[in-house]
Amino acid sequence: MPIEVNGKSLEVDEEGYLADLNQWEPEVATIMAREDGTELNENHWEVINFLREYYEEYQIAPAVRVLTKAIGKKLGKDKGNSKYLYELFPYGPAKQACKYAGLPKPTGCV
Amino acid sequence: MAEPWEDDEVDGPVRKFMYVNRRAPYGTIYALESLEVVLIAAAFEQDVSLVFMDDGVYQIKKEQNTDAIGVKNFSPTYRALEGYDVEKLYVEKESLESRGLTTDDLIVPVQVVENDQLAELMEEQEVILSF
Amino acid sequence: MPMLHTVNKSPFERRTLDTALRHAVKGAAILLIEDGVYAAFDGTVVADKVKAALSDHKIYVLGPDVSARGMSEHHVIDGINVVDYGGFVDLVTEYDKVQSWL
Fold this sequence. Notes:
The structure holds 3 protein chains of 3 kinds. Chain B is an alpha/beta fold.
């Protein structure tokens, strides 16, 4: 089922990932999160924006271990651990945050 | 002791995997398939090394631009390998030279090896996958 | 006009280019596409063979396939013409027929 964002209908796959990442806008994340019962705060956005930058640079969504380590490097050790990330994204940090960020599902990971 | 941000360690034996890449990047699907399998193995914290030989050296040629052929340029992903702790990238010297290339033409730091060194490295592996 | 031969395999991996050259009459043209474009670059072990073929054949290489592989016009052997998709179409109409060596 496509999602409605700002009057546009955006195609998603059977797991809810955006079909075309170029169609992403911040509102996409807000709406997807709301469907999961979450209101995004600045900590969520930090991770979502990080993922978009990572994808821009490397053309893949990172595995959770790689994400955790990279977040730790960039945002500090108190954020670069899976407890912190799982609290933000209880469905699996890489998986759920990637979905909100409009990226494909990460290869072989949580 | 593990650092707190390293608490996703996967238990189980670590094996030595070598991926041998011998095909050019876009004419066939081999290069992309290999890269995806490498990322999966690396996510499970195996001891992964990559070899680029024959036309495989073209996979890591700098400045690929696929806009006009309508295919995704996956060459930036080789630069992500370091973050996956995949740091053993070997390029066969003869393959590089016979194509008029040098390490300056490559998007990732590599170790250039001779045939016989490569043969020894292959002998040290537990699993070798050729693409 | 004689024939246009297209070659889409790397000269380092297959004998396709050799076969095409062996079966191309004088005046026939060669168009290198996909992994065939690797034959068009200078400084490789096949460059001399390709340069020699230029005396009997016009040789063309498809630009979009060159850029995709991280190469540019300055890598291309002097005398080989870089064409875009429009140029590809022009060649197909200019020559009597096309032999696609696969």
